[in-house]
Batch of 2 targets.
Target 1
Amino acid sequence: MQMLRKKWSEGKAICVGLDIDPLKVPDCIRLASPAATILDFNRKIVEATRDLVCAYKPNAAFYEAYGEGGMSALKTTIQRIHDLAPDVPVILDAKRGDIGNTNEGYLKMAFEVLKADAITVHPYLGADALEPFLARADKGIIVLCRTSNPGAGEFQDLFVNIDEEEAAVLDEECCASCGPKARFYEYVAYQVSCRWNRNGNCAVVVGATAPYQLADVRKIVGDMPILIPGLGAQGGDLEKTVTAGKDSRNQGMIINLSRSVLYASKEADFAEAARQEVQRVQTEITQILKGGMS
């Protein structure tokens, strides 16, 4: 998390999601195998944007889909980021979460084999199952809270019972007949910020497609980092996102951009086009934070 804070102090809030589809990259960079294409494409994107971003976030699924070659490309991509941009953290977007013994294996893969700096996890099995992750004070543990997909509310917006102490923190009123309740995503945010974050290594995920929920979560977690996917192709609004997601220091946001950056051009200038897109969005973020946009 220290690397993120340094990047925020430099005015950088954008995370580039390295979710590469070899069939969508420009023809000029397609190589003999999908894994080779992914690796070369990633290198050029990182070289073009490394001085502009606060993080990189490869999604494991895009690499696992190509088997051994894809996983080798993921490992090499992370190592290249460490070499080319040693002060930029790498978030492995894997959404892990199982019983504690199984999580030990996920943890070893993420942090010892791939050497990521942070990982996304889901909270469904509870804190005891996630303990192997939470105990890693040297790594970022980013917990799914209110996601960006259209069906997120199916479970995440359901009401759950909470006790009086939790209600006070969540600013929820008690109902005489049923007691205090909170939305499930609110309760996750409470648990992560108030109970799980003893090592100061936690963050939460809230989608840009849910700006009102994002504002709720920001109130609950204070200045904890929030990873925010869902802009660009998913339809999130940048101004609403920044307004809802900023912390008390106008920082605290890891704003993820993937397709809009990766495929900013279908020609040989794709890396420069990616850089320009990151610059454009970062300029808008800065203007919003300064009150320069309505």
Note: The mean pLDDT is 93.
Target 2
Amino acid sequence: MEIALLFIALFGLLIFGVPVAIALAGSSALYVLVSGSVPPMVVAHRMINGVDSFPLLAVPFFILAGNLMNTAGITERIFNFALSMVGWMRGGLGHVNVGASVIFAGMSGAAVADAGGLGAIEIKAMRDAKYDPEFAVGITAASSTIGPIIPPSLPMVIYGVVASASIGQLFAAGFIPGLVMAVSLMVMVAIMARRRGYPRDQAFVFSLLFSTFRRAFLSLLTPVIIVGGILTGAFTPTEAAVAACAWAMFLGLIVYRTLNWKRFLRVSFDTIETTAVVLLVVGAAAIFAWILTSNRVPETVAALLLTASDRPWVILLLINLILLVVGCFMETVAAITIMVPVLLPVAVAIGVDPVHFGVIMVLNLMLGLLTPPVGMVLYVLSRIAKIPFERAVVGTAPFLVPLVLVLLLITYVPAITLWLPTLIYR
């Protein structure tokens, strides 16, 4: 009865527009008061324990690194390099959009940072070139989901903490799936460009490619430093986040001189605000997940799913459907913190590697960023493009097709995800 009250309170608060963190903490506090099984102080203790983790230190530093790169003009250099590299293809700016997102993914690790930083440059360029606004928003939104798959990745850090999985292996596991996502989106861009008669935006000129590469070279070293340092064991993911911040500050303050102290203070305050929101959600979701675990809800869900079918592929399909629905209604960090204790035991029971399952979960929840009613990326890009939210949804819909196909491919072909972490770590 108390568990039913917990979910009724949570969804009731969410329906009335209460922020996710407050809804999670409030419903958990109500459960504790009504059940009387534990003292109310447990709520505060569990929330504190939920954020008391060394790997979570990577979160504010990766957020700061992404904000610094957006402010220091690094994103513009990346965009120009991508334009000279793939702009010659039909629908060139669509391909540039994907290529720039792949490069930026190795720096920020957050879909919203990709959409907010590169998105403003990409959408303006595509509108100036007479692309449909819906197409511009759709490909920008879809390509931004690559950010949390290719390392570094903030959702992977959260998953690693909650699931007690190796963050280094999770980062390695996301690399090939991220590239597969990029290829699938570029195929869709090519199909749509041919049907709609989009142009080749510029001819391929080797000298231009060389000049833009030289101009962006130091910026392109950022993912090399982050990913290379982690995969070679030079530093931990948390230390890699600090290194990314230091490198971005070095480029912005000393090399490019595009970052002054006034901008740096503004970026710092933005980072503090974003970090506070993320960690508040983590803490609130931790108490909610603890209540579910202490009431053996994960075991109940596992039993229901395992009795639904004895075929692993069917159970994996059900898990994907659950995560897709959850992603439509819940913020990514909260969804990971709550759903990992519930669904990971089921996945392990049917032989799914926890690292593989982490990539499946994160990709599912990234698709939630592209679907209403939450659709955070769509809200950001609709404001940037100055089009109604409904038009942003329509423009993004075609690009969900290749992303869902990639999700199914990654789900049922574990080698795509596990080959690289096995090669490096196992």
Note: The mean pLDDT is 83.
